Amino acid sequence: MIKNKFLYNFKKTSIFFLIKCKNKKEVLHFIDVAIEFKTY
């Protein structure tokens, strides 16, 4: 349950970030960090 809630919030944050962010390098970095974070 907690994991699902986290993923839901994470997706919302990602979408907001992608809309807000105009720099593609920043987006790619954000995705890399997200992937690293998921592995832990």
From TrEMBL:
It comes from the Bacteria. This is Uncharacterized protein. It comes from Flavobacterium branchiophilum.
